[in-house]
Amino acid sequence: MRHLLTLADLSKVEIERIFSIAEDLKSKYESGLREPLLPGRVMALLFEKPSLRTRVSFEAAMAHLGGSTLFLGSDTGFGKRESLADFGRVLSEYVDVVVLRVGRHATAAELTPFCSCSVINGLTDFSHPCQALADLFTIRELVPKLEGHTLAWIGDANNVARSLAVGCGKLGLRMVMASPKSYQFSERDLAWIRREAPQGELILTEDPVEAVRDAVAIYTDVWYSMGFESEKETRRKAFAPYQVGAELMAQAQKGAIFMHCLPAHRGEEVTDEVIDGPQSVVLQQAANRMHAQKGILAWLLGAKG
Ligand code: CP
Ligand code: NVA
Fold it and tell me: pLDDT tens across 109-136, in order?
C-alpha cells in the first residue's frame, strides 16, 4: 500500500509518471473528455483546518474520475472518540483513499500505519506535498526542462517550502531561499531534505535580491501559516523586508514567473501589483492542483501503473 505523506515517499521516476498521467488527463479534460479511471472508488477527506483549493480540487478530481467522495468533518470524532489505530483500521474498511488535513504531521504519521487504504497528506504543519507537485507541474509547463533552473523562495521556511525543497532537489531544480535568519530551515529540516534529495542544491540566504537574481520562478507564501496566527505581529515585523513587490520582481530574470500557493495575505508577503500582474501564474497553479491530484489518485490507486 503506497501513501503520500511527504515527497520523500516518491522517487523522481514516480513523480514524472504522476506528471505524465496528469498531463494526459489535463489535455483530455480541456478537450471535453473526463476519463472515468476510478469508477466505484471512494475517497474520504478528513480535514481539521479550512480549505478551498485542496478540498474542492480533490472532490472535483474524484468526480471526473468516476469515483465518489465523503467529506468528514469534526463529527467523526477523529482524535477524540477512539484511538487513531481503531479510526484508521475502520475507515480503511470503507474507503480506498483518505486525504488528511491535520494540524500536526505526527498525527498523520501515527495514523498511516493503521490504514490499509492509501493516505494522502492534504497539508500538515510539516508538509504539503500535493501543493508542491502541482507547483512543479506548473513550472514544467512553462519551463519544459527543469534541470539547472532556479526557484527562489522568499519568506517563511514552512510546510510548502519544505515540500518544494525536496521536490526541486529530486527534479534537479536549484532552490534559493531568502528568509530572516530565525525563520530559515532548522538543522533538522536541512538534514531531512538532504537525506531525501541528496542531489539537490539548496541555498539559504537572508537577502531576497540575491535569491531572485537567477530565478525563473519567484515563490512566496504567507508569513504566518494556519496555526501560527498568535505570532502574527512578530512575524509581520520580521518579514517586512521580504515582501515580493515590483522592485524585487525586476531583479529576477526577464520573464520570471511569480508563484503563490494561495490563500494570499495581499499587502503582506505580496503586493496586488505582482499577484495580479502579468508574471503571476497563481491561477494556473490553483487549476493544476486538480490535474496533478488526478495523477496522484490514478497512480496511487493503480488505475495507471
Ligand atoms: N493552497 C491550498 O492548499 O489551499 P487551501 O488551503 O484552500 O486548500
Ligand atoms: N503555509 C500555508 C499554506 C496554506 C495552503 C499554511 O500552512 O497555512
Answer: 999 999 999 999 999 999 999 999 999 9
Residue boundaries of the structural domains of the chain = 7-128+289-300, 131-285
| SS3 state of residue 130 | helix
64 catalytic? Reply is no
> Is 131-285 in the same CATH topology as 7-128+289-300?
yes
What is the fold, at CATH topology level, of the domain defined by 131-285?
Rossmann fold (3.40.50)
Torsional sign, CA 75, 293, 289, 195: positive
What is the pTM assigned to this prediction? 0.98
Asked if 243 is an active-site residue, the reply is no
Which atom number of ligand 1 is nearest to the Cα of residue 286? 1
- For the record, the C-alpha cell of 139 comes out as 513550472
pLDDT digits (tens, 9 = 90+) for 12-38: 999 999 999 999 999 999 999 999 999
Q: Is the CB of 51 under 6 A from ligand 1?
A: yes
Q: Is 221 a catalytic residue?
A: yes
* 232 half-sphere exposure, CB direction, 13 A CA radius: 6
Q: Give the tens place of pLDDT for each residue, 208-251.
A: 999 999 999 999 999 999 999 999 999 999 999 999 999 999 99
CATH architecture assignment, domain 7-128+289-300: 3-Layer(aba) Sandwich (3.40)
